Amino acid sequence: MKKASLSLLTLVLVLLATILHAEPQADKSVPPATFDAVVTFHEIFEPVWHQAYPAKDIPAITESVPKLQQAAKNLLEAVNANGSAHLKPSVEGVSESVEHLAAVVEKGDQAEILSALEQAHNKMHVIIEQTDAHDH
User: Are 101 and 113 in contact (CB under 8 A)?
Assistant: First the structure.
């Protein structure tokens, strides 16, 4: 009986030591304001991607750029204000890709514009996956 109690006590102590020395997990939750900013960005981006991009409608893409820039800025502000540090690299990638799109639009080269929009789309999908915003 003493041996079983000692073994159980040893097991409990080992488990407790493991728990106490474990690396804390980063908070991967998404605050509502950040989630809303992701959804808003997606709502602005979606028609550009699904309508203007396949049609190679450069005027529609060009017209969307200021809205995309503002939505990307709002998204970055939401991430910074709401403690969503795990999303910051991805959001910065989206913001940079939207700024690249804006610069390419100024040059007017259709192939570059479509390529830049595709890059922005790919960056946006990283955030959509990270926040589970794809169903909204």
Answer: yes
